[in-house]
Write a structure and sequence with these properties.
The structure is a single chain. The protein contains 14 helices and 23 strands. It is α+β, with helices and mostly antiparallel strands. It folds into 2 domains: 292 residues, Roll (Pnp Oxidase, Chain A), CATH 2.30.110.10; 113 residues, 3-Layer(aba) Sandwich (UbiD C-terminal domain-like). Strands 5, 6, 7, 8, 9, 10, 11, 14 and 17 form a 9-stranded antiparallel sheet that branches. Strands 19-20-21-23-22 form a 5-stranded mixed sheet, sandwiched between helices. A 4-stranded mixed sheet has the order 1-2-3-18, with helices on both faces. Helix 4 runs parallel beside helix 10. The protein starts with 5 loop residues before the first helix and ends in a 6-residue tail after the last helix.
Length: 481
């Protein structure tokens, strides 16, 4: 069952022994970061700070702080979610009327995940008068940060041409009680919506929801194809439609179970220096000019809790969200590239620095084809380094990947370089958002790839001996690892 809201999730975490509740006054300026970072690094519980210094609301952090907690937040083990997605994408396109009729149950199920509009909602129980962002325990995470930042905001916009909703997670630096930065990067849908408004000289309405069911918050981070409503995807994850309510001062809808809703607008042409920000790369992203979000209204639940997270040198909480995305979206990647057996985006790779891909190799140069497929696929297009291995390699085992790659490559022959878009946060690229990429073909080479030598056999023990020693092993009271 989906969670009824953030308070419900917190309560269930506490019942599972996965919540540390403290009355100790902790400062949102750096102190909470240090506690939360230690907890995540130790695989510890989420943290509920009941008295954040200088704030009117409690703060919770570490909601996704372990892989198991992330699965709990999403309502199912990741592999189960992967198989649910796979069931959707594996059906063949309908070619006959009978095929189309067979598709109807799937379409009806999808319709069952469409968001539902309600007339009243917990997120609008209290209207803050006047709206004041400084009452929230917004954290300054690192000493070099330009100020306090919202780090788990769901930012809602609408395409002015099609009317389609988008929900993305873009950090918001608090400038004062009524304004923040709006850090939507050039590759993001929110930035495209803003560009259309700006070209027409129009003010753009924006709504920010914070809190609620953690599965809905996760959905705002998901790399969905443009035009796919994140709230439908959230309904799919929860197996129940997301209830939405219309904002009070702008023509947008937000999740009814959110803890806070911040309504406002972004004006065309207005920019303000935002940052620096201690980012998920483990380095500060540099200050730059971004649009300004003006707040017109803040509403909240009576029992509102402010959720936050920190990013920085991996492993961090966002790494587990990235792992969820890797597993959940693997079937979609395989739909476009069926030869892909598995994918690993290592947490230490900060999402965009490294992808390890196992393939069923079928022809000479296949690994290079897959590299370019990855570089042409949604947010994976920003991947800086792609390593391609054979299907029998466990890409989740980094030691095995290094062993295989080290043995399989001739560096000059098997390295591919190209140029293209890179993540805006990549500080090593030659230009902002543009740089080089590297592909490494770590598959076994075929004669058709210019390999004229004999590939050696891999060292393996005979099965008969292994079976005999298995018996001896058991007699010795040892366990196989």
């Amino acid at each position: 069952m989906p969670f009824a809201g953030l308070a419900d999730y917190i309560s269930q975490l506490e019942a599972r022994g996965e919540l540390l509740r403290t009355e100790v006054e902790l400062d949102p300026y750096l102190e909470i970061t240090e506690v939360a970072d230690r907890l995540v690094k130790a695989g510890g519980p989420a943290l509920l700070v009941q008295r954040p210094k200088g704030a009117a609301f409690p703060l919770v952090i570490g909601l996704y702080g372990t892989l198991a907690r992330t699965e709990f937040a999403l309502g199912a083990p990741l592999e189960k979610l992967t198989e649910r997605v796979r069931a959707w994408v594996q059906s063949e396109p309908p070619t006959t009327m009978m095929d189309k009729l067979k598709q109807l149950p799937r379409l009806a199920q999808l319709a069952g995940y469409l968001p539902k509009t309600v007339s009243s909602a917990p997120c609008q129980q209290v209207t803050m008068d006047p709206p004041d962002l400084t009452k929230l325990p917004v954290m300054t995470c690192w000493p070099g940060d330009g100020g306090p930042f919202f780090t788990l905001p769901m930012v809602f916009t609408r395409d002015p041409d099609t009317g389609r909703r988008n929900c993305g997670m873009y950090r918001l630096q608090v400038f004062d009680a009524r304004t923040t930065g709006m850090h939507w990067q050039i590759h993001k849908t929110g930035a495209r919506h803003y560009a259309i408004h700006e070209a027409h000289g129009e003010r753009m309405p924006v709504a920010v929801a914070v809190g609620g069911d953690p599965a809905i918050t996760y959905a705002s981070t998901a790399p969905l194809p443009e035009g796919i409503d994140e709230m439908i995807f959230a309904g799919f994850l929860r197996e129940r439609p997301v209830e939405m309510v219309k904002c009070k001062t702008c023509d947008l809808e937000v999740p009814a179970d959110a803890d806070f809703v911040i309504e406002g607008y972004v004006d065309p042409g207005e920019r303000r220096r935002e940052g620096p920000f201690g980012d998920h790369t483990g380095y500060y992203s540099l200050a730059d000019d971004y649009p300004v979000f003006h707040v017109t209204c803040i509403t909240h639940r009576r029992d509102a809790v402010y959720p936050s997270t920190i990013v920085g040198r991996p492993p961090m909480e966002d790494g587990y969200l990235g792992k969820a995305t890797e597993r959940i979206f693997l079937p979609l990647i395989q739909m476009m590239a069926p030869e892909i057996v598995d994918l690993n985006l290592p947490i230490a790779g900060a999402f965009h620095n490294l992808a390890i891909v196992a393939i069923r190799k079928q022809y000479p140069g296949h690994a290079r084809k897959v590299m370019h497929t990855v570089w042409g696929m949604g947010q994976l297009a920003n991947t800086k380094t792609v390593i391609v291995v054979d299907e029998e390699v466990n890409v989740q085992d980094i030691d095995e990947v290094i062993w295989r790659a080290g043995n399989h490559i001739d560096p000059e022959r098997d390295t591919q370089f190209t140029l293209g878009p890179v993540d805006v946060l990549d500080h090593a690229s030659r230009l902002p958002a543009y740089g080089s990429k590297m592909g490494i073909d770590a598959t076994k080479k075929w004669p058709g790839e210019g390999f004229t030598r004999e590939w050696p056999d891999e060292i393996r023990m005979s099965e008969a001996v292994k079976g005999r020693i298995d018996e001896v092993w058991a007699q010795l009271g040892l366990s196989r690892q």
